[in-house]
Write a structure and sequence with these properties.
Layout (H helix, E strand, L loop, with lengths): L1 E6 L9 H13 L4 E8 L11 H4 L2 E6 L5 H10 L4 H4 L4 H14 L3 E5 L4 H7 L15 H6 L6 E6 L3 H12 L6 H24 L2 E4 L2 H10 L5 E3 L25 E6 L5 H19 L5 E6 L16 E5 L5 H5 L3 E4 L9 H8 L4 E3 L16 E2 L3 H17 L3 H16 L2 H19 L1
Parallel strand pairs: 1-2, 1-4, 2-3, 4-5, 5-6, 6-7, 8-9, 8-11, 9-10, 11-12, 12-13
Helix pairs in contact: 5-6, 8-9, 11-14
């Protein structure tokens, strides 16, 4: 098929969850289909001439991300029926570019990667609700009149967004200093229920990244079939054993590692909770630890952690894999969020011992004590980490067994070779329904 993919940011280099998923989808789909890509460029990003995207995509169009001021976001929160995510990448030039490509290339399928790009996919196939789609000069009838044949519309919902904002709101309500953020999330939660439901009902194919997200989306669109196409990795690209050279700047003997985009609210909450409530309990029993926070765009809220010399805010790195490989314990202290977490899949592919909250691996059918250890309270989390650190010092086999079983788990269930047939079947069903 000829497929147009719409992504909110350049898929390469794949440095965080959205780009990892999008790049791998392109890499896999390009083996069997013709792929065109329209995307936004974040500040500082460039589409390099040597990018592997050129070898995977027939055509690539990239426009700078639009800029919205804080004042405009606040005004939109008060006045617009659309959620913030529906307006975040609103761009008249991108609308024009999408329309031109759809009208001239006769795509069989248009795939929206994430809710931020939904406005473009909906207008591209003529499924516009004036109340829930940004209003540009070209109206709905004009869009439909110039369309040769309506492409299949696929909505790939990277997170169940209304559920994420609900969890953000309920978490922040427990902290008086976070009540403003809680109020924002409460408003967004209600707007997203309506907007996400509208997109799901209008799409021909809806993709969720986990069974948990599928169930949550089914509440919004009960009659819409939803296909689970989980996040995945190419397991063979991950080493099973730590590299021989530890990362520079490590201040402790045992590295506790967390990776993720560090301006993302669930990740911020996770490392603050771990650094403030869990790490001191670990240090009291195992002082020689260093908690490494690895990921781009560290938020200013993390500055309070810098006073602890055992915490290292690494920031952006070319590759997170060496840090994961050198982790004595990889930690996933998530209390908010959804989807299928790449961080868990990558750590398991590296055969590292993992301690996670239950929510941190929601949607991944792992078993406590088999592929990793689960703990949800500060004391239980600290106990699990110390248990694994003690194992590393004593030469026992718990760490190795957990790592080996985790590696086999992702090989069997989360390699892209196992995942892509589900997506291809969803495409085939949609084509058959068209007759």
């Amino acid at each position: 098929m000829k497929i147009l993919l719409l992504t909110p940011q350049l898929p390469y280099p794949p440095r965080q969850g959205t780009t990892i998923r999008n790049y791998n989808l392109i890499r896999e789909l390009a083996q069997r289909h013709t792929i065109d890509l329209l995307t936004f460029l974040a500040p500082g990003d460039t589409l390099d001439a040597n990018s592997p995207l050129h070898g995977l995509c027939r055509h690539i169009g990239a426009l700078p991300q639009p800029v919205r001021s804080s004042a405009q976001r606040a005004l939109d929160t008060l006045r617009s029926p659309l959620p913030d995510m529906g307006l975040r990448l609103q761009s008249a030039p991108m609308h024009a570019l999408v329309q031109r490509w759809v009208q001239t290339n006769q795509y069989e399928l248009v795939q929206i990667e994430g809710i931020e790009m939904a406005q473009y996919g909906l207008r591209a196939v003529g499924k516009v609700d004036d109340k829930l789609t940004p209003n540009y000069s070209r109206g709905r009838q004009a869009d439909q009149a110039q369309m040769v044949a309506r492409p299949i519309l696929v909505f790939d919902d990277h997170n169940c967004e209304y559920l994420l904002q609900k969890r953000n709101a309920l978490t922040d309500l427990s902290l008086p200093r976070r009540w403003a953020a809680a109020a924002y999330s409460l408003v967004q939660w209600q707007k997203l229920v309506r907007y996400e439901a509208h997109i799901c009902r209008q799409a021909d194919v809806v993709l969720a990244v986990s069974d948990a997200d599928k169930a949550a989306l089914a509440h919004l669109a009960p009659s819409q079939p939803i296909t689970v196409v989980s996040n995945g990795i190419r397991v063979r690209e991950y080493q099973e054993t730590p590299s021989s050279t530890p990362q520079a700047g490590v201040s402790g003997r045992f590295n506790l590692v967390f990776t993720g985009k560090m301006d993302y609210r669930p990740n911020i909450d996770a490392v603050l909770w771990f650094g403030r409530q869990v790490l001191p309990l670990i240090q009291a029993r195992t002082p020689e630890v260093c908690f490494q926070i690895v990921g781009m765009n560290p938020h200013s809220r993390l500055d309070v952690l810098r006073a602890n010399p055992a915490i290292e805010i690494v920031g952006a790195v070319a590759e997170a894999q060496p840090y994961i490989q050198n982790a004595a314990v990889y930690v996933i202290p998530m209390r908010v969020g959804g989807g299928t977490r790449f961080k868990a899949l990558e750590a398991m592919a590296c055969a590292r011992p993992i301690v996670s909250t239950t929510l941190g691996v929601e949607g991944i059918p792992v078993r406590d004590g088999q592929e990793l250890l689960l703990a949800d309270s500060p004391q239980a989390f600290a106990d699990a980490v110390v248990r694994l650190l003690d194992d590393a010092q004593s030469g026992a086999t718990v760490n190795r067994q957990l790592g080996e079983q985790a590696r086999r788990f992702v090989e069997n269930q989360y390699d892209w070779a196992q995942i892509m047939p589900h997506l291809e079947q969803a495409y085939a069903t949609a084509r058959a329904d068209r007759g």
